[in-house]
Write a structure and sequence with these properties.
Elements: H1 3-7, H2 15-22, H3 28-40, H4 49-74, H5 76-82, H6 97-115, H7 118-135, H8 145-169, H9 175-194, H10 200-206, H11 211-215, H12 217-241, H13 245-265, H14 269-298
Helix pairs in contact: 3-4, 3-8, 3-14, 4-6, 4-7, 4-8, 6-7, 7-8, 8-9, 9-12, 9-14, 12-13, 12-14, 13-14
Length: 303
């Protein structure tokens, strides 16, 4: 569909096309991180269930879904070449509806965030700003793997975790409970790099400097593994220092298994990145929950 035809197309998109545009499968990582934040707060659920449910909806079906709509809108011309069956280039979300939905879902996200307090509202503003900056020009952070992956990693791990802890406590958590999710956000940069191996050729043609494009597949795999492993070492060390050796040991065991899996990944990163996402990344996010329970046990998330 030509751009001029899109502008004058006033058909309403089907609900199924809108849901596909929001990519529900991508909601799991931020909702998991939100759950880790809820656990880390060390506060009982009595009377807090409505806030937890609304917070989970905010992180997944609202903020994350907004980021997916924004990304598809600004990638519509590229997708028309590489993935013409996606909702916007296929015409199932016609005209300007992609942009309209992005604006509406941004507004709804901010309204819901405001209902959960000033701190959550602030976190939502940061997350949504990064979502737009990642995809939309002029910043279009996704054009550089260092900046783009950092934005996504923070939005998928750190901010939802902090939001969950804040929703439970009614205030920002203490510095120790802020440091842990930020460390896991650093590691998630490597996870984001794994997703770039499948599109190296396309990224080269389109001028997107992902890490596999910048460094080559082999070096990018080594950097991704180092970035995933390093923060887990720090987290385990901190938990020992803070008096939670059992949780630290569990994270260490998880990391040892990950390191073994990484030795396979770096040999064939382009072929094995999806396999590692299903194995090593699962261990990574399990460690997040272990760390959340450690914070709950040690400090009630307030440190």
């Amino acid at each position: 569909m030509k751009r001029s035809e899109q502008v004058t197309d006033f058909r309403l998109p089907a609900i199924s096309a809108i849901v596909e545009l929001m990519k529900p499968i991508t909601w799991f990582p931020p909702m998991w991180a939100f759950g880790c934040g809820v656990v880390s707060a060390g506060i009982g659920f009595e009377g807090r269930w409505p806030f937890v449910v609304v917070g989970a909806l905010l992180t997944g079906p609202l903020v994350c879904a907004t980021s997916q709509i924004v990304n598809d809108w600004y990638d519509r011309d590229v997708d028309a070449i590489n993935e013409p069956n996606r909702p916007i280039p296929s015409g199932r979300v016609p005209g300007e509806w992609g942009f309209i939905l992005a604006l509406c879902w941004t507004a709804v996200s901010l309204v819901v965030a405001a209902s959960l307090g000033l701190a959550v509202f602030g976190a939502a503003i940061i997350g949504l700003a990064l979502a737009w900056a990642y995809s939309a020009p002029p910043p279009r952070l996704k054009k550089n793997g260092w900046w783009g992956n950092s934005a996504v990693a923070l939005c998928y791990e750190g901010l939802p975790w902090i939001t969950g802890a804040t929703v439970m406590a009614g205030m920002l958590p203490g510095w120790k409970a802020l440091l842990i999710p930020l460390l896991y956000s650093f590691g998630a940069h490597g996870i984001m790099t794994l997703n770039d191996f499948k599109s190296i050729e396309g990224d080269k043609r389109l001028g997107i400097a992902s890490l596999p494009v910048q460094l080559g597949a082999d070096r990018a795999a080594l950097v991704a593994c180092a970035m995933m492993a390093a923060p887990q070492v720090v987290v385990a060390g901190l938990l020992v220092e803070w008096g939670s050796p059992i949780h630290a040991a569990a994270i260490a065991v998880s990391l040892i298994i990950q390191l073994y899996l990484m030795t396979r990944l770096v040999k064939k990163p382009r072929e094995l990145a999806p396999w590692y996402n299903a194995t090593g990344v699962s261990l990574y996010v399990s460690g997040m929950l272990i760390a959340a329970f450690a914070l709950r046990h040690l400090y009630g998330g307030s440190g």
